[in-house]
Amino acid sequence: MRIGHPLARHRLPKSRPETPGGEGSGGYGRVRDLGCVGRLSASILRRQCRGGVMTGRVVPGWLRVLPWVLAGAVVLAAFPVVSRARPAAATQADPQSAPLSELSGATAAVTEEEGDQDSRPVVIDSVRIRGLTRIPEETLLGLLDIRDGTRVAAGDLQLTARGIIKRVFTTGYFSDVDVYAEETAPGHVQLTVVVAERYVIRRIDLVGNDEVEEEDVRKTFSVKAGRFLDTRKLVETLRSIEELYQEKGFYLAEASYEVVRDAATRSAVVTIRIEEQAEVAVRQVIFVGNSALTDDELKAVMMTREKGYLSFLEKGGLFLRYFFQLERQDEMGGAFVDEMAANQFESWSATQDIDLQRVKWFYMTRGFVEVKIGQPRIALTPDHKGVVITMDVDEGRSYTVGKVDVVTDDGDGLLFDRDELTRGTLLRSAEQFNAQNVMADTDTMSKRYMNKGYAFVSVSNSHYLDKKKGIIDLTYIVEKGKPTYVANIELSGNKTTADKVVRREMKIEEGDLYHQGNVDRSKAMIYRLGFFEEVEISHRPSLAPPTAPLPGRDPAGCEFVDLVVKVKERDTGIFQVGAGFSSLESWILQARISKNNFLGRGQTVGIQALLSSLRQIYMFSFVEPYFLDTMWNFSFDLYNTATDYDAFTTETVGGNVSWGYRFFDDYFVYLTYKAEHMETSLGGIQGYGGVPIEMLEPDGVTTSMKLSLAWDTRNNRIMPTDGLYNSVAFEWATPYLGGDFDFYRSTLNSRAYIPLFWNFVLRLNGTLGHVTTNSDAGIPIFERYFVGGIFSVRGFRRNSLSPTVPAAGEKDPSATLLEFPYGGNKQLIFNAEVEIPIYREMGIVAVGFFDAGNAFAEDQQLSLAELRTSAGFGFRWWSPMGPLRFEWGFPLAPKPGEEPMVFEFTIGSAF
User: Fold this and answer.
1) Distance CA 638, CA 627 (A)
2) What does the domain layout of the chain look like in residue ranges?
3) Positive or negative: CA dihedral 82, 85, 90, 94
4) If you average pLDDT over every residue of the chain, what do you get?
5) 194: closest CA among 145, 254, 252, 127?
6) Cβ count near 23 (within 10 Å)
7) pTM given for the model
């Protein structure tokens, strides 16, 4: 044998489809499905190399016939070659090859020498490696199970070469391997292994992404710097980029790549180019064949929207290909659709376009169970900036419900009385059929069984269509399975929060009979903590059921499940240092640290400092919701404040300690002891001299006990969107507790959170307060009610709504008397607002509100006619520093001296 004649050879196969720009061509690559002739033309005409860079070229018209001419020449030349005894052997490794990942387990193709098998011994004097650049030769030789002087049979030399190829390719570092044999003496050969190392991506450059962030584009990459160059993964990357752009409305966006190779280092630089084009809008959606339902009704259920005047909000009106991609119908069909699919409903359990699903499902909720929606026809407008979508509809007829029955699969009878089982179901005989009601009824009956311990109950259905009469008979089939007990409860996702914080909210425990209602309640209780963005509870057959029978349970007659509680934690901490400016308070400096889930134990710790021209606040607070892992609640506050009112200034130092107990899940009782020292000086902002009110005392110590009762069903205590909160409190301040003042205070508060359409939330609040005293000294001014501002009635200055008496200014007592606000002993406040999500991912919402309220003196009766009213709007942002509120209020009937609009900014949650 001579050097230059390959004893064995292995090439990695080319990519299919052949695309310019692969590791074989090095040119521009586009995701396009070319025909055979087109691919051949592109391959020939684009392989023009200048300085190691493969570039694309436009195909001239006269060259389009060139592939046919070449193909004919190849066929003619093949006839004499086929007639020969053996083909000519290749003499060198082909430098153009595809990446190793394209081998896909293919077997090496070896070109064998002709001739009979020979058993004569042959000595391999040495093995040499050629073509290495990055890998040391000694490393590769160590992988080959051949040493100098190895003796093999001459007929086994081919097998030896195959073994070398297999070991080399197993490393994954090479794209080509050839094995050559050179006879150095009779019965002696030298083997030469010629390899081609795979190119490694040194860098990936991204060009042309103006509308989409580079970080978002790079997340779609299937290729990474430092890994081997892989044509197929580059093509996958281009497809992913184009899909990303299509999801954002750039339907005509195109991605291509360019590869620059350095043969000396076997490295490559990949440049991905994006031609974004203009966004494509939906100009029109046309339905053909619909008569029972109008175009507007059908368009309303689609995720695709026609472009309109308000389409700039949330990318409305853009053609998003995602809405016409495939998705499982299970999400919209459920058990009813899965059962019906086998008969009348075409492919309902298979994959369908999302908007087609929505339109079809809408028809089924209107009784059209045989409706068919054709695949949409999408046409670009002449300017390539819009599309027209046409959908064909075959409505069929509307069906009325006939008989509705419930049976069991085994004929043993129902666990419940039939009337009890169907109580609360929605599907009724003689009414229009509604597939949504079938789903709801299936869920209702399933939960009745699941609340009795049958976790794996299955409620399916069968139907009969009387097409002549337009009647559908439906039968629910119940497969209850075996009673199920909870074996284990597993937690995941609580990286910071301790397990016990989650477990103590569970309303079902290990060893309990499964109860779906308790599982749902557990989910609600965990979510209302406010520590988690998402809470999911699922069940599965137990991976570790009890080995010993549980007392009173037959292991053969029951099953065991594991409950899996999966949570996603939210940021419950607030750390902020900021400054602001207000027309009322001038400069405001604030520092605040608050943690609602301190050290993951469910405790709340807060430290706050605020300085402004009107307020100075220093506060520390702590809350332990489960004192010593019991149902008792413990909290305390320490504070030092100074506040300038219009007529006076107060300085307070004090604190409070509170004990509470939770009854059941939603009822709470608290007992709070408060002690504080208050100093009051007249004057305040307006500068009053003297006030002819004997009951106002300047300073003293207040000690009180307060009893509070609360009923709380909110779904989240920090950001509620559903539920109620009602509380009543009675406070008694008396010298018997060591203080100087004697008064009684009653407070009633009621809040409601009502979810509306489009994720809007209606929030309602009502507050009634009353304070009285048996002391001749009266009620201290700092214990009276002052209404107005962002925390009570917006649109009015803070604490500006109050009963007043004439008083002289301190600078000129003989001047015109001013109205001195001394506060009321009663207050009544109503708030109503609607929260509108704008950017939910960022926690940004808009709000429109209506407020009404006032404070009333001892000689005044509570009167709705005397309430001051306002309306306005605002924006709220749950920022990393905490909830920020920006609100503009407008008094509906302003009095002389009141501002027509009041803007306020604060940090903190609304009611």
Assistant:
1) 19
2) 6-197, 201-275, 281-394, 400-479, 486-569, 600-907
3) positive
4) 79
5) 127
6) 26
7) 0.61
